[in-house]
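Interim report to the steering committee. The following record documents the input for N-acetylneuraminate (7)9-O-acetyltransferase (756 residues).
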Amino acid sequence: FKGGDTCEYLLSSGRFLGEKVWQPHSCMMHKYKNSEAKNCLIDKHVVFIGDSRIRQLFYSFIKLINPQVKEEGIKHGNIPFEDKSASIKVDFLWYPEVNGSMRQRIKSWTEGSVAKPHIIVVGAATWSIKIHNGSNEALAQYKINITSIAPLLEKLAISSDVYWVLQDPVYEDMLSESRKMITNEKIDAYNEAAVRILNSSSRNSKARVKVFSVSKLIAQETIMKSADGLHLPESSRDTNAMILMNVYCNKIMKPIDGSCCQPHPPLTLIQKIAFCFFTLSIIGYLIISLIHRNNYRKNKSCTDLESGEEKKPAISIPNVSTLEMLLHCFCKLGLIMTYFYLCDRANLFMKENKFYTHSSFFIPIAYILVLGVFYTENTKETKVLNREQTDEWKGWMQLVILIYHISGASTFLPVYMHIRVLVAAYLFQTGYGHFSYFWIKGDFGVYRVCQVLFRLNFLVVVLCIVMDRPYQFYYFVPLVTVWFMIIYATLAVWPQIIQKKANGNCLWHFGLLLKLICLLTCIYFLSYSQGAFEKIFSFWPLSKCFELNGNVYEWWFRWKLDRYVVFHGMLFAFIYLALQKRQMISEGKGDPLFSSRVSNVLLFISIVSFLTYSIWASSCKNKTECNELHPSVSVVQILAFILIRNIPGYVRSVYSSFFAWFGKISLELFICQYHIWLAADTKGILVLIPGYPMFNVLVSTFIFVCVAHEISQITNDLAQIVVPKDNSTLLKRLLCIAGFFSGLHFFSAMQDQSRH
């Protein structure tokens, strides 16, 4: 760890991921859109001073503001650019040599009340080498001229951002005869002189001229593609312009996926309170543990020296109290949350951009598939979608989603469409599982609801506090929470129809189907009425939970994307349980689900349907159009998978314990990846061990999985304490939770007011 200034890394070091994606050392670079560039540079004046290479950088820079600009200016003259809509001025000043003329122009900005540019980009040397035929006298004069200009640049650097661009190497074999004297040896000598003089003259860190040396590294990789051996190819100079934009704009725009040059975010009031709470929990647990340890030592069995018999302790070892268990959980959680904060809020660990290749996605998929098949065991029961099978399903889906996220595979549309089916399958299981429970058990009590809500939301609420993120940011948890409440409301509202009641009178089945039709109608209406949906979720306090960036559009989009699949899960559960009750399916060990002929036909249809969906998803050309069709057709592949997995008896009778283990902590894995496996809120990759990508992934993955498993245990332990079965005690706990959220809202309001 060399310090928190990632700007130096951005300006001086990095590597290519593939052919065109530049990865700065230790931090992430944001790709600025035109609108973002304009917002950053509004009312700003930017000046580029130098030769034809600086002119190239100038054009790439203004194309970030206006892509329609064409390179039609005078080659050896000044070129102005202005964007009147944002009051942005960008000028190129033709000064191909570091001489008295350049010095005079720079000096004019330091005198009197002349308006100084906000950004100054300077660089020149190749003309001096060319005109003076690479003589040593020209290099000596270059040193003298830079020495005279350096104090002026430092004076400007007090109020402006000043960058000195080092000279890029040339491709000597392609240089024309008139440029043969421009050698890489000469360029290195000029660069060395510039760096030494600029660094030695700077006494004040605030008045420091930033050396833009990263262009040299980029050119070393790409100069072979140059048209004339001197000027960089367009993709390379565009990368330089994007780096320049990141250096200046990241601290203003604060993009999530642009960690370079971003200052460390200050602790909020709520984060400070959380820090104090976890610190007190750790101290409290240590004190109680010491007291118990001392008591244990005092009462420990010892041998009577006279009789040689062992004495019994006067007092038995006390059981772990509720307070101690509570403090123990919060102690562990506090240490884990510290790790979360250090990984994704402090500038302690490095972060890198994702870069997708087919091998980075498909090789790990093949690897976990082999592991999953290797750990195959017999199931305890052979019912359709039994507990072990659903855990296995959740597990392999979660591992595929994790690989999808870390490999950046969202840029490859066929993979994206298949991952959308996996997310839909999670929601399908939500509909199936909760409907089955309420239909069979008929338990609509408050205890059950509170248990589910606590287990789903505990980790996310803690992360919202510690990581200073809105609830909707962790979109999947709000999604399953709302759908759980919809399922509960649908079945709990009068008349309550459960399996026991329906078995006595078949008409109740039609009553339940009527409820499901009403639910489908509401879903259909809300999906095509954005205004009505937004009005519902814009009411306080729902707006506090579901707003992201000041509106609920993101929440509407997420909800709409898989709007029918929970209903499909409920309907499937109803049909399956009805068939099971009437003994129309065979679930014995090794038996096919239906008769041989029916099973073979259904299996054939399922395989064809599964492959048909995959072919359709792989042929998608437009993400928006495919997303529109996805809610209606995703159930095809889900149902096909369920039938393929359950119709053959021998397939239904086994499961992968490897996948099932991950399935039990799938929710924690999904949420924890945001901050301690990925980085910058999922936009990048966490780098604990720089320079060794594979070893880094192994170490960060091991820690990530261990943490997710530990949080799952903490959540289960706390659920038993916070949500007791006794109704009167539960009511008191609910009042305490209401008080907690009221306090959280109060401090949040104070925090927002102080920000404004």
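The longest helix spans residues 269-299. The committee is asked to note this result when reviewing the revised timeline.
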